Amino acid sequence: MIVNATPNGWQVIYHRAHALLAAELAGQWRRKDAPVRLYATLAAISHHDDLEKEWEEDILTEAGVPKDFTLSSNNDVGSTVEKLAELANNARYRGRWVALLISMHISRLNESKRGQAPEMDKFLDEQLENQQHWRKELGIKKEDVDAAYAFMQWCDRLSLILCQQELPEDERFLEISKGPEGQRYDIMQRSDNLVVVKPWPFENDKFTVNVEACDISQVKFESSTELTQALQEAPIKVLEWTFVKS
């Protein structure tokens, strides 16, 4: 989950909500420049964080505060591989294209762990083999697959910038990432709170997206169970951003 401090406690955005925001942003992309299999790609974007099940996991730091996803450190390689395999296998129910993009996402996030344990190496090798197999079965060029995954990464990164409150002050630009065509994109929030992306990649000249966040008015917790209950009972705040072309 994504955790932001507030004056009275915490703002928590579930990872699946962040993924839905990423899909909303993807849906705004200029149609003529959209990646292949756009709707299946949107499905991959909206489900790429289905691995996260906050209400069922240890979501508390040793200090007793909500654990932001950047602080997560699961040292149990076997458990990590099992969870990643579940995400990869579940993606196959939505079709090979969704499975392919999510597998590529798993590879990108976990290749740095290669060499830590035999089971992780085996799992990573399987992902690469699956990706090659699915590309061949689908009859799609590698460059088209890479472009679609770059699009997925771009939307994921933009959603994280918004959810993690990373928009700079004083109308300064921040790099998002390179898009599916290799173009660099930057984001800026104007003094009137409208958001600008340059160059403009979207279909419409103005649109609004949102995400739901839990507003917790408690700083510390005794257990993950207590925090889970607080999250389930917390008021929901809708966070909105309006994007404009200039």
Summarize model confidence as the mean pLDDT: 92
Main sheet: strand order:
1-2-6-7-5-4-3
Helix content class: 40-55%
Number of domains: 1
Structural class: alpha+beta
- Principal-axis shape equals flat
Overall description:
The structure is a single chain. The longest helix has 22 residues, at 142-163. It is flat, with a radius of gyration of 19 Å. Helix 4 runs antiparallel to helix 5. The protein has 7 helices and 7 strands; from the N terminus they run E-E-H-H-H-H-H-H-E-E-E-E-H-E. The protein has one domain (2-244). The mean pLDDT is 92. The two termini are 32 Å apart. The chain has a 7-stranded mixed beta sheet. By secondary structure, it is of the alpha+beta class.
Features:
246 residues, alpha+beta, 7 helices
Q: Brief description of this entry?
A:
43% of the residues lie in helices and 18% in strands. The chain is an alpha+beta fold and 246 residues long.
Secondary structure elements and their pairing?
Elements: E1 2-6, E2 9-13, H1 15-27, H2 38-47, H3 77-91, H4 96-110, H5 118-138, H6 142-163, E3 174-178, E4 184-189, E5 195-198, E6 206-216, H7 224-233, E7 236-244
Parallel strand pairs: 5-7
Antiparallel strand pairs: 1-2, 2-6, 3-4, 4-5, 6-7
Helix pairs in contact: 1-2, 1-6, 2-4, 2-6, 3-4, 4-5
